[in-house]
Amino acid sequence: MYCNCKFLCMIFSYWKCLWRWTTSQNLSSEDLQAVLGKKEVQEALFQGLLSYKPNSPGTFSQLESKYPDQVKLLNTVQTLQNYIDVDSFQIWDLIKHYLCSISYGNITNALKNIAFLDTRPTFILPNVWKFYYCERLFLLRLLQYIIENKNNANHKYHKEFSHIYNTSGANLMSSLVGQFEKVTTSTPPPRKIHNDFGNETIRQEWAEYNLREQLALLQLIILLIDEENIPVEHFQTLFKAFRRCNFGKNQSYHELLEERHRDMCMKIVYLETCLFIVVSDKQYL
Ligand SMILES: *[C@@H]1O[C@H](CO)[C@@H](O)[C@H](O)[C@H]1NC(C)=O
Ligand SMILES: *[C@@H]1O[C@H](CO)[C@@H](O)[C@H](O)[C@H]1NC(C)=O
Ligand SMILES: *[C@@H]1O[C@H](CO)[C@@H](O)[C@H](O)[C@H]1NC(C)=O
Ligand SMILES: *[C@@H]1O[C@H](CO)[C@@H](O)[C@H](O)[C@H]1NC(C)=O
Ligand SMILES: *[C@@H]1O[C@H](CO)[C@@H](O)[C@H](O)[C@H]1NC(C)=O
User: pTM for the complete prediction?
Assistant: First the structure.
């Protein structure tokens, strides 16, 4: 997918776009600063998956009164909320970003082109749903990339990365542990209601994203343990989470997993064991 969205990135976190820009080292340091230096972007980055706020009563009607003529898209927001517990305005943004990504538009005119876009629920629902889960992963990947390269003197942006980390990274360990806890206790979306997604594979896809998120978070935590100690209470929380799924061997949604997920499950087993050993070795032996 083409990504011409400098302006779009600046408005708010469009993680895939930011990730591409950052990893291709294609921005000037000023442009990078203009994007990653923004307070709301850094906040979201370090809150990670917790930057997606749960839906709260009343916000949908606020959204509705703001865009009274967008009945179709409002319905999409509402239906999506049966499957993902995310704030109405954040879902609205996700839809707009998704529409930009398929129409090459920018966020300002995202809704102007709507007549030319496919907004049938059977098309837009599964696609925005996927877009959302991909964005979550890009968010985690970008954070990992920043931490990995902040001390790498050969990286074009290492100073900027180091600065971002120093300014916003203070509570990162506790945030990551909280995210891991949340991801490992979340439950698959309900079976289809009114045939929203056309087919049943959404639960299997969810399971796959959930495994990917666990992996990304474990990698981040291991990376961070290299930087700083992990407080005992966080380690205990992690350890409980590991035990709950038998060190990755038994996810609560195991009935959704298929042979092709085996590798990912094994990676979780290895990473959890590895994390346990690294911490014991570094801190408690
Ligand atoms: C970024 O990449 C594009 C093409 O891929 C190139 O035209 C442009 O000069 C690059 N910009 C920077 C700042 O490196
Ligand atoms: C968004 O796109 C429209 C039409 O293509 C253009 O007129 C407008 O300047 C763009 N806005 C920004 C901020 O790039
Ligand atoms: C960030 O903090 C580290 C450790 O205190 C320090 O060595 C580094 O220079 C700081 N980076 C920036 C960009 O200030
Ligand atoms: C179900 O949907 C997914 C993606 O939305 C698609 O890849 C798959 O082929 C569909 N399966 C059937 C049986 O229609
Ligand atoms: C995995 O957990 C489920 C319940 O969540 C339990 O029924 C099953 O026996 C467990 N399997 C293993 C191999 O521990």
Answer: 0.88
